[in-house]
Amino acid sequence: MELKESKNLEGSLILREKGYYQFKIKHHDGQKILLEEKYPIEIEQDKSPQVILFPANPKPVYYETDNVQMFYEAHDDFGIRQIDLIARVNETTLKKSVKRFKQSVRDSTGNFTWSLSLENLQQGDEVQYFLEIKDNDNVTGPNSGQSEIYRFTIFDSRKERENLVRLQEELSEKMIVLLANGLVEGDILKTTTTDAIYGKKLLASHADALIDIIGLAQRIKEQTKDFDYFPRPYLTLLNSIISGLTTLREEQIDAINKIQRTILKPTPVSFGMASVEILNGRMVTNL
Question: What's the pLDDT at 78?
Fold first, then answer.
């Protein structure tokens, strides 16, 4: 300890457990005296540092040349030493320095851009990443903490092409099944006397089937955006299927509502089945 201005004492010491301290003074003649008063020592437990990761635009799939942008908030009661990005790719662990602190700070916010093109990632790789933080505890530490873990996959063009082919096959099968049903029902409507309830059920079943077909076509169209130089004629066909069947389904719903109003009238009114036959024929033509 140092004597300041012949009155004040100044000093520091490292403590590992609670207890007390006393002063021992030494006279000029060399005599040492231990003062009776004891000063209690209470030690606070050093808490683990905390860091929160905020991905700027989290996506389930990235290209191997993309940038992953993120923001963070960090705090420690003792002082932050460093923040690192930890990534696990299959069985490999990568470590990227986000920030080092020359002076002790308790709070920090910032951003970091992770360039995937520098990591030699392969198509189909599964990636997990999080931020790791360490404090300035040089006595029992450093202590560490980590953020929430995020995941993504590197875009696999071969796998996506296989998925696209599977969706196309599913779309074709559903269209063929509905076409066959439309052809059979077309003959029934021409040769058999049917009522409004039959027409309502027929249109409802067709409308339900069309919503599945339209949804599949929209999914296929959306996935084609991941491929360069996708055939323009096929995109034109998809747009035609989506727009044509969407319009047809809206007309089917309108016809169902008209049939329903006819059925609910106090005095039964005959409903012409010509509109049902026309809509069925148009559906067959579209398919």
Answer: 80
Query: Does one domain contain both 162 and 260?
Result: yes
173 and 66 in a single domain? The answer is no
Percent of the chain with pLDDT over 70: 85
202: number of Cβ within 10 Å: 23
- Whether the CB-CB separation of 244 and 223 falls below 8 Å is answered with no
pTM over 0.85: no
Q: Determine contact, residues 55/68, Cβ cutoff 8 Å.
A: yes
pLDDT number for residue 68: 94
Q: Given pLDDT bands bounded at 50, 70 and 90, which one contains residue 30?
A: confident
Token output for 38: 């004891």
What is the phi/psi pair of residue 52, to 5°? -115, 130
> Cα–Cα distance between 59 and 42 in angstroms, integer?
48
Residue partners of 192: CB distance under 8 A and separation at least 6:
none
Domain end residue (candidates: 114, 131, 154): 154
- Number of folded domains in the chain? 3
Provide the domain limits for residue 166.
Answer: 157-286
